[in-house]
Design brief:
mainly beta, ten-stranded mixed β-sheet, 55% strand, elongated
């Protein structure tokens, strides 16, 4: 007898579409194996496929799953998908679409579910960081409470977010509580933040039993929720840490720092959630463990349910990013917790001065006098590393002294910018100075107005009455007006080619005529021979119509 080994399945994902309206929330799909053999799950991903909006429109992630690498026959598991973020685009919420993909060995695989997000509200953590939809508590002694705040609900654009209410459900809702406030005042339900406001959400965890504990904070009685997780522990040693990771940073000058400012440290709150006295002990592992240090502070002996503060720090005299882990251990037991550490050293942020360069009216296609700006260390340290300066493309401004501040021991880098408009009207742009080491950017605001001079003459011709040769006429005049949007620069006013000086001119025109300014040109006819005489007054300027002219004619008897 011959045959083939069947693949797992049939397999389904339900529902087939998840639609989000609040960033930082989670929704569930169920993966079901209706087959008679185990289903091998190779991977699961939640990806964005299309975006209507800027690059930071809503994205997706897998927040949690009960599916392992194998799903037994006639079994189900849950995949929790989170929608992250959401911003305004053209006055409306930015939208995105994506796909949840489960790659498995089912004959009809991969299994997919469509994802869409039009998030008019979003959850962020303190500092406006995107929230992944999961609030995780460290292990805590049964019967004792720990609280987490710093979860904020806000609008994703220039409009108020929909009202927010939360309801606890799931496996262990009694182990968790939530509270909502707006502007420091508690809100019983339907917290609706206006523009620039945030609803602040606090979660608490009081385990009623040992082991993993979970609940859902359901948003607005719908399908979207925040996943709450924690672990209960029985009597004995236990403690929690006030941070889930440690970030350290220090600034270095480009030359030896006379103030030895190479140390960075942060406080670490430790809460004894056990039933025995806690004693502080710390050690470090990882690539840069030797750069790290710990101080016990007041954590040498901590009574049950009391808190203390230790200090974690590092010291480096070189630039870079350094990683390690700190193992915080109870010296009176074997209970310990690990925290990842990332430490960065960089040069002091450089200041651009002045932050605004303002130029006057300038004709398109011409270049103004340059103005200078400096990039300097605010502490007076030498720069010692390079900066590049860029302008938008195309730009109405030009960098007249190059675009790079090379690495050197000089304390100040000076560059220059000139206004070279290609358009008329008010112009505002920003020059960007980029630190080539850290990537930090600084902007210089550039303001100018592009305009062109224009010549308007009150007449195109002067015709003198007939007169006798050898006599001089009363002067005839015409007016020149600058009708443009930039200063008119006059280089010459002349009557070229007038025979024997038959025509002469005088004027009160200055070399620069302001916008809407006028001047007068007077012409006299003094024929030296008989007959018809002609010539022209010619005006050379920076106007596009240059040379401008007025024809002259007269007859001598």
């Amino acid at each position: 007898m011959t045959g083939t080994t069947p693949n797992g399945g049939p397999v389904t994902i339900t529902p087939s579409t998840l639609s989000f309206t609040v960033g930082g929330t989670v929704q569930d799909v169920t993966l079901s194996n209706f087959g008679s053999t185990p289903l091998a799950i190779k991977s699961m991903t939640a990806t964005v496929t299309t975006v209507n909006g800027p690059p930071f429109a809503p994205t997706y992630s897998i927040a949690n799953t009960t599916c392992g690498s194998t799903l037994p026959a006639q079994s189900v598991c849950t995949i929790s998908v989170a929608s992250l973020g959401g911003v305004e685009f053209n006055g409306e919420p930015a939208t995105s679409a994506g796909t949840l993909t489960v790659v498995d060995d089912a004959a009809g695989g991969p299994q997919t579910a469509a994802l869409t997000s039009t998030n008019t509200g979003e959850f962020v953590t303190t500092g406006s960081e995107l929230f992944s939809g999961v609030a995780s508590f460290p292990a805590n002694q049964v019967g004792y409470q720990q609280t987490q705040n710093g979860y904020n609900y806000q609008s994703t654009g220039h409009y108020g977010a929909p009202g927010l209410s939360l309801a606890l459900s799931g496996s262990d809702p009694g182990d968790f509580t939530d509270s909502i406030s707006l502007g420091g005042s508690p809100v019983a339900s339907n917290c609706a933040p206006g523009l620039g406001q945030q609803c602040n959400v606090t979660f608490s965890f009081t385990p009623s039993a040992a082991g993993a504990r979970t609940a859902k904070a359901v948003v607005n009685q719908g399908n979207q929720y925040i996943l709450l997780t924690g672990t209960g522990v029985g009597p004995g040693a236990s403690f929690t840490l006030g941070s889930s990771s440690i970030s350290l940073a220090s600034n270095l000058p480009s030359a030896p720092d006379p103030y030895s400012n190479t140390q960075a440290s942060v406080p670490l709150t430790i809460t004894n959630t056990g039933t025995t006295t806690f004693g502080f002990s710390a050690s470090f592992t990882g690539p840069n463990a030797a750069l790290m240090a710990a101080s016990a502070g007041n954590c040498a002996s901590v009574a049950p349910q009391a808190s203390c503060t230790a200090t974690i720090g590092f010291s480096s005299t070189s630039l870079g990013t350094f990683t390690a882990s700190v193992i915080i251990k109870d010296a009176n037991s074997t209970f310990s917790r690990n925290l990842p550490i990332i430490a960065n050293t960089s040069y002091w942020p450089v200041v651009a001065s002045p932050g605004l360069l303002q130029f006057g009216l300038q004709a398109p296609g011409t270049t103004s006098a340059a103005q200078t700006f400096t990039l300097a260390d605010p502490n007076g340290y030498p720069l010692g590393h390079s900066f590049s300066v860029t302008l938008p493309s195309p730009s109405n401004f030009v960098l007249t002294e190059g675009s790079t501040c090379p690495a050197s021991l000089t304390q100040v880098c000076t560059l220059a910018i000139a206004f070279h408009p290609f358009q008329t009207g008010s112009v505002t742009e920003y020059a960007t100075a980029t630190d080539e080491i850290s990537g930090d950017t600084h902007t210089i605001e550039l303001i100018g107005s592009g305009g062109a001079a224009a010549v308007s003459l009150s007449t195109s011709a002067l015709v003198f009455p007939a007169r006798s040769s050898g006599t001089t006429s009363i002067p005839m005049s015409f007016t020149l007006t600058n009708t443009g949007t930039a200063n008119l620069t006059i280089s010459s006013i002349s009557i070229p080619g007038a025979v024997n000086g038959n025509f002469t001119q005088t004027n009160n025109c200055l070399s620069t005529v302001a916008v809407s300014g006028t001047c007068t040109i007077n012409v006299t006819f003094a024929p030296t021979t008989t007959g018809s005489q002609t010539a022209a007054v010619q005006i050379l300027s920076n106007a596009a119509s240059s040379p401008d002219s007025v024809s002259l004619s007269g007859t001598a008897n």
